[in-house]
Design a protein that fits this description.
By secondary structure, this protein is an alpha/beta fold. It is built from six helices and six strands; from the N terminus they run H-E-H-E-H-E-H-E-H-E-H-E.
Amino acid sequence: MSSESENRQNAVIFGVGPRAGVGAELCHQAAARGFHVFVNGRTAEKLDAVVADITAAGGKATALRADLTKADEVANALDIVAASQGGLELAIYNAGNNRPEPFLDVTPEVFESMWQVICFGGFLAAQATIRLMLDQRAKGTAAARQSLFFTGASGSLRGKANFAAFASGKGALRMLVQSLAREFGPQGIHV
């Protein structure tokens, strides 16, 4: 193994859309700090644009196209990260779909879709990421530090009028993250 691969830090950002969004900015910030960034999202054009911007700025990035509500696609994306050189040090779950809508207008399909992206996708990404991080620890290939973060919103603490579907998903995600922090913090993974 070369010293470059031994020192390489990897980051994966789940939920990247257009360059003006939070996910893309997180990718750029991670790349600026020396991470090889795995950029995850559903739209190839948006991912390719973020990867091209990072590369043009002298950073390293790889696109990972996956729908975070599908377990097999999340697993395949993390397999690509696992096969790369270096340990996974940073993962950030940023997927979400905030939209205001009067409660009586929210259809069951919209409510379920919001929950799937915000909370269930967070569950799938966290499970695959933590498995990879623990596997790297067991093999001695883990980064010195490993962190898994989730972007939040005030809706996880208090729901506003017209945001019932969003707030319920973010509230559930917050509880999931608290459970993960208590379970995996003692194992060396900061959640």
